[in-house]
Each structure stands twice: as structure tokens, then as C-alpha cells.
Write a structure and sequence with these properties.
The complex is a heterodimer. By secondary structure, chain A is an alpha+beta fold. Chain A has helices spanning 23-33, 116-119, 142-145, 158-162, 179-187; strands at 9-14, 42-43, 51-52, 56-65, 68-77, 95-97, 104-106, 127-129, 134-136, 168-172, 203-205. Helices cover 13% and strands 20% of the residues of chain A. The longest helix of chain A is centred in the N-terminal third of the chain and has 11 residues, at 23-33. Chain B has ten helices and three strands; from the N terminus they run H-H-H-E-E-H-H-H-H-E-H-H-H. Chain B has helices at 5-32, 44-64, 84-108, 125-149, 160-184, 190-216, 224-228, 247-251, 260-286, 289-312; strands spanning 113-116, 122-124, 235-239. The longest helix of chain B is centred in the first third of the chain and has 28 residues, at 5-32. Chain B has a two-stranded antiparallel sheet with strand order 1-2. Classes of the chains: A alpha+beta, B mainly alpha. At the A-B interface, strand 3, strand 4, strand 5 and helix 2 of A face helix 3, helix 7, strand 3 and helix 8 of B.
Chain lengths: 248, 326
Amino acid sequence: MSDPIAKQLALVIDLNVCVGCHACVTSCKEWNTSGWAGSMPDRNPYDADPSGVFFNRVQTYEAGTYPNTETIHFPKSCLHCEDPPCVPVCPTGASYKRIEDGIVLVDYDKCIGCKYCSWACPYGAREFDEESGVMKKCTLCVDRIYDESIEPERRKPACVLACPAGARLFGDIIDPDSEVSVAIREEGGYQLMPEWGTKASNHYLPRRKTRQVIHADELIRADNPLKKEGPLPKAKVGAPSLDDVTSW
Amino acid sequence: MRPAFSVIFLTTLIGVGQGLFLALVAGQFYWVIGATDIPEAQDFYAIGSLLALVFMGGGLISSFFHLAHPERAWRAATQWRTSWLSREVIALPAVMGLLVLYGGLHWLDWRPVLMTFGNMKNLDLTMATGYLGAALVVALFICTGMIYACMKFIQEWASPLTVLNFALMGSSSGFVMATAYAGFMESPLEDFFAGGAMFLTIAALVGRIASIVRNKNIKYLSSLQSAVGLHHRNLRQLTRGFTASSFNLKEFFHPGSPALLPILTMAYMVSAFVLPIALMAFAWGTGSISAFALAFAVQYAGLLVERWVFFAEASHPQNLYYQKVA
């Protein structure tokens, strides 16, 4: 996109919070398969070699060597790149980025199912629907976030509402005061595969460790030089006090 | 990447058609400048154009099998400003149109002189159409190659060698076809085509070896660390997040085993380049037309394998996210 857009809706996913429960995966499938972007068909769901279309996946990674390992649950969906490589390659114009809010969408009526856009996405965010013969992808629940029949605080993507841990934030990353912009700025939000210049809009907040340094002298009570445990000696009645109530 | 047979046949068949068109135009030019005084057999160019058209048409039909909605294929011509695929969709029928025009003008023998040069040589309408056609053939080679070369993160493809090799292999197979065709028509251009075929096949071999060497030394810019954004040296996937299959597992991995690729690479090196060169050398020596025809058949089979490997050896960075079931 040559013109800078005024608004870029995106998700910010806190890897420090995500517990890997897949609630965002199932709620995404439930909302979208029955909605505007549907269907998201499963092939041979109860048979050998089942396969299905998902807009959102939760993967799990491990870093380190046992016993010093760390498990990272990693939700992955379309990143709604600010410079999406999947859009200019589309020969029909079915793949497009909305100027008004930066959401990358597919026009199912124009898509010829050549799959070239999926080749052009380094993240593998697009999944082909063999039933309807068109490319499908995360819509950021575009049919939900502007639906005025839904109460305003619930006009968010299904995955954000479903997350029991609150690991998913949703908002405009261009507005510097939005919840997502503040989180990216203050919590070290980063983009996936920055080497390809896609300027992914979805950001991830890194794992954070809370470490406390305890010095040796902090393990000993500095106000007990004789190292005798027991009730403190009572001050004499009438002895000077700080506030006439407590004693020294 | 998963090799799609529709695309394998599309790119190899139109390669032959484009090469044959180039050969015909080069042959006519060779004759026009007076390199040979024996007049060309009548209808040589017309039937040759028809032959090239058959190959191009075969490729076009094959391309439709790649589409889930072929009835909307016309829309694919709309995004030529940004999409190399769209540009190919325009250039392919344009080359076919020029072939019809070129062959038709020869068939009708309608060759009004457009221009006379100082050496009293004429530029007639057929030759001019041929030049335009040749330019469009080159444009189509660029479009086809750029479809792959513009994918910067598929690093095996993101190279000028991709475009060059599409052009060289297509031209090579077209010239081999032209040689067999000229032999069959007993055209005086047979030797000219044979020389061209030899040169182009050797050039294609060199180009392909260059791309193999380049691809062996690729330093991949993406890693699991950059894909997840966690820069730990010892990072691995525990699960891709699902046990079933998905589009991501089918489209971006090739169905063969890793050991298959070097075997197939050797196979196409022999079949697409070495064997045709040997057969042509033999045919040139003995004047055997059937050896030229055999050279074409062997080379075409080799090019099908080459194209399969071209897709299979391309590694897509999305595969980093799909390494382990559980």
C-alpha cells in the first residue's frame, strides 16, 4: 500500500499470558464458519486423513535444555500486514487491504482459487477452502466488530472475547493512545519475521521473567543485632513515644 | 512447495511453443538476410506456427486445471499493474494471437513491404509480425519467470537465474522441436535450427547448473527464532497445534522423500540436457530426423522432471511453523 492508512486494526498477543488452551481456535472456527467469512469446512472429519480450514492455530514451542526449559504457547493467525505481500500478487484483485481499517480480506466472488496469494504469505496464514474453491483467511471478525446489534464492549474478534487469560488485545495500532499501542510500546511488542519487510500489524508481547535479587544481608534481620527471637521489650508507661500511641 | 501438474505442464508446454515461435522468426530472419539462397518451402511458417499454437494451447488448457473457479479466469487479467501472474495471463493469449497472425499472414502469403533498407533488403509484414511476436515471447518468458522470482522469501526462486532458466529451457525445447520439424519438412533451415538448439540446450544446462550451485549456498534469512520471535538458540516446536491435515501441510511440502530430489536432479540433467545434446550431435552427423524427434521427446520428459524438482526444492518459510505433530 503506497498511501499510509489512517487506522490499522490488529491483535496484540501476550505470550507471557497465553496458556495454550485453544479457546481462541475453537471460538474463531465457531463464529466464522457460521458467519460472513464461512464456511470453514472439515473434510473427512470422522474418517481417515481428516483435514480442515482454520483461521487461527495455537502452536507450542519449547526453548532450552531440560530441566531449564520453557514452554511457549503461540497463537498464529493472519497478521494483517501493513505491507501485505499477498495482496499485490493476486491476479484478480480478490485479495485486498481495506483502506478504512487496514484489514486484509478476500472477495470470495472474485477469487479464482489459484492459491498464488498463499505462496506469497511467508507466515502460511491463508488456508484454501476446497469445498467452495476460494482462499480463506482471518477477517479480524469484520462482521462482528462493526455490528451495531452487538453491545459495544463485545464488538471484538471472537478469539479476543474467548481468551480466558486475557492474552489477546484488539485495537488500532496507529492510534498512539490505544490499548494495543501502549502494550506494544511499553511491553516490547514485536513482529514476526521482520526480515521480509511485511510490517505485520499483529504484534506479540514477549515472555517476561520476574526476578528478585535478595542480598545476603536481607536474609538477616538488621534490627535484631543480638539475634534473639521473641517479643520486643515493652516500653515503660510514660516513656516518650512518636505519636503518644506507639512505643519505641 | 508441492509441484502442481497443471503448472508443470503449463510452463513446459508454453516454453516449447514460445521457443518454436522464436525459432521460426529467427529462421525467417536468417533466410531474409540471405544466409541461404534456397527458397523456403511453402507454408513452412504457417504449419510451424500452428504447431507452436498447439503447444501454447495445451499449456493454456492445462493452466485452467490449476484454478478452482476457471469460469472467473477472465478476472485474472485485471491486476497487471501489480501482479506478474496477471501479466502472464495477458501475455500468453497475446503471444497466441501473434502466432495466429504470423502463421495466417504466411499462409495467405500476404507480405506487403513495409520498409526497404539501404542494402535493398525488405521488411515485409510477416517479418515485422514475427519481430513483434518474438518481443512478446520474451515478455511472456519474463512474466512466467517473475511469477516465481518475485517471491522474495522463497529464496530458491528469488533470483534472476529463475527468469533466465525459464527462457533458456523454453527456447531450447522449442528449437529442438523446430529442428525435428524442419527435418520433417525437409527445410533448408534444419542446420540453422540444429545449431541454435545445440547452443540453447548447452546454455540452459549451464544456467540450470548455476541455479543449483546458487541454491546449495543459500543462507536462509528466516529461522524458527525469527518466525516465533524468541531468540533462544535451542528452540524447537513441540506441536504445530493440530493432529489432522491442513492446507499448510499439503501446499508447501512436496510429497516425495528428501532422498528423491538428488535422484530426480540427476535424471533431468541427463534427460533434459545431456541426452538431447548427444542425440542431436548424432542426428546432425547422420541427418536422422527421427533422432531429432527422439531428442525432443526425451528432453520434454526431462523438463517435466526439472519443473517438478523446481517446485519441490523451493522451501517456503511457512514450513517453519509446521514441523511437528505433537
